[in-house]
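FAQ: What does the model actually see?

It sees only this:
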Amino acid sequence: MSSPPPVRPMVLRHFGEPFSDPDWLFEVKHDGFRALAHCVDGDCRLVSRKNYTYRRFEPVCESIAAVLRDRDAILDGEIVCLAQDGRALFAGKKTHTTII
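And it is asked to produce this:
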C-alpha cells in the first residue's frame, strides 16, 4: 500500500458544560486508541494520529477491507476492546486483534 495521504484525525473539542444542539452529532466516548483507517485498492492500514502504523491489528484491517469491498476510504475512529457487558477494556486493546 502506498503512503497514506496527509490526513489527520479530527481534534477533540472540550466544553465546560454539557449542552444540546440540533447542529451537533454526539457519540459515546470509549476508552481506546484513536486511529485512521486508510483503505486503498482493497488494502487497509490503521494509523495513529502521530502517523504510527498499528501492525498488531492486521485482522481488524482485513475485516474493514472486506466490508468496503475494494472501495477507497479514510475512516476516523477509535480502536476499542469491549467486555461481554459492554465495558471498555483498555488493557485488552494491547492483545486483542479480532473484530466483532
